[in-house]
Each structure stands twice: as structure tokens, then as C-alpha cells.
Amino acid sequence: MASNTATMGNLPSGVGICTTIPDILYLPELIFGGLVWILVACTLVVPENPQGWVMFVSVFCFVMTFIWMMVFACGGHHNKGSWAAADFAYHGLAAFFYLSASVALAKVTLEKEDGANFQDYQLDISAVVFSYVATLLYFIHTILSAIRWKSF
What we know:
Elements: H1 2-6, H2 26-42, H3 48-74, H4 81-111, H5 118-150
């Protein structure tokens, strides 16, 4: 653990993203974000507006997190402080987006409670849980990225 906190002023590259804090959170963010995407896509998308926002957020964050992880893995950041600031800003935006999508999805799911299709209801409940987990992961990543940014 000491090696993880000692390198907070450096941006990792290569396999280092799998062993340093907060970058170790990339994979869980991708997994839970992908689960939200899959579960919402599997259900009947009614009403369209909130469910469309949830799909946009999950697809956008999944793609951007994957690209962000690849930039870090390839060392495209060149260990510059501006990339640490951008990492903080992106994960803060992603946490905000996921929080808004989670609330919208929870509202839609509560309204489906008396609906006819119980399987869609169960899938939506799972999507809500995974969406809040993704929100928490992005929020933790934001806090840890802010600490790293301030140590540059």
C-alpha cells in the first residue's frame, strides 16, 4: 500500500494502471457500466426519455472510460499535470452523469412496480443497483484523482 500512495504525484502507464490508486478502478467502472448498458438494453424502453438518458450515460461513460484507460495504458499522458486535472474533471462529470441517470432509472423502475412484465422489472432493479455502484466507483475515482492532481 505504501508504494501506491508514494506515487500519487505520478501518472501510471502500462500495467501500472492495474496496480495504482485510483487507476485500479477503471476495470470495475467498465464492468458495472457495461452491466447497466446491457440490462437497460434488454428491457422494454418505456418511457423513452429517462431510459434514453440512462443508455446515453452508460454508453458514453463506457466508451470514454475505455479510451481514457487506453491513453493511460499507452502512456499518452506523458506524466503531465494537465492530464491529472483532466482525469479529475472527466471522472467528476461521469459521476454526475451516472448519479442523474441512476435517479432517473430508479424513478422509472418504481413506476413499473405494478407493471405486467415482471422480468423487465427485475432487470431494471438490477440496472438501478449496478448504476448506483458505478456512480460510487466514479465518485471514489474522482476524489482520488483530485488528491493525485493536488500532489502534482
